[in-house]
Amino acid sequence: MTGHTVRLGAVDRVNVRVSRQPGATLFSLLKDVFGGHSHGVPRLWRDAVRRVLSPDAAAVVGPLLRSRACWMPDRLALVHDLGASDMSVLLEELADSDPALVAAEVAAFHSAGSTPPEWRPLLDHPASFLAAYRSVVGAAWDAFAPLWRQADVLMGREIERIGVATVTGSLDGLLAGLDAEVSYRGGTLRLPHPCPTHLADLGGRPLVLVPLASGSRAGMYGADRDDALWIAYALPGLGRIAGRPGGAEQAAGADGLSLVLGSVRAQILRHVPHRPTVGDLARRLHIGASTMTYHCQQLEAAGLLRRVRHGREVRLHPTERGAALAYLLAAKPAVRE
Known about the structure:
The protein is α/β, with parallel strands linked by helices. It has helices at residues 22-33, 43-52, 55-66, 87-95, 99-109, 120-124, 126-150, 152-167, 171-176, 238-241, 256-261, 263-271, 278-285, 289-301, 320-328; strands at residues 4-7, 16-18, 183-185, 188-191, 207-212, 219-222, 229-234, 305-310, 313-318. α5 crosses α7 (126-150). It starts with a strand and ends in a 9-residue tail after the last helix.
């Protein structure tokens, strides 16, 4: 088995929080800008950040940002404070970081094996590396801050979506539909990268969801902390502020089911009482068969539908929970002035 798992237990008892944390978004952006990590950052955004980066500083930190390592000190990943909503706080934390302590954290993590070469600049010259890193992060934020502010409305809508899912007991449907690096099935999160310090069980820790306003394929997570498990994922509707038509924006006035699951999965759940096949439903909703299969698998993982064989056909059936959720969230939310 590849990856690693974290048991959440009964999702209706999970302490879920959502954070408008800008550091994770900026780090995702930098990983995309420096290449090798396709987070779906729009080209105009990537170019705007590249133009302001000091070539000397970028040359120092570039190899580390291009690396495929799954681990990064939280201060460098800008997620040390998961509750911070003001980037100035995170920049101050980075400026106050002790280079020797950061280097010691890296050395301790790699003590059991050889240190990858991309870490050598930090270990050999920690003070100069952190100075270059702070320069890159500060310049990138100055360029990106106006775009971050544009995402505020979408962030508010995402907080509302998570709140609806939490209070209606439909959190597993939301987790199965995050389309993040982390996948969910039956009370367990599957992490793509094995790491010796990962949690095996959530326990009493909060699950912190961090929407990323960086790109359509953005995704990160942290499962090695004592105080929280955090999952960062692409902010729904990001195509709207990226200037691309046909983004993931959810229409104003959408009902609660679409708010929680997204419009496609909400339509599927509304149609499964008719016991369609995947092909029938794909044709009815004008969606490709492979895309339809993927969405149905995610709904099945969340326990909202099941596949039942009828002779030579396999038809989709709602589960009791899926039917109840569709009924509960059928009403449209109140329109806000």
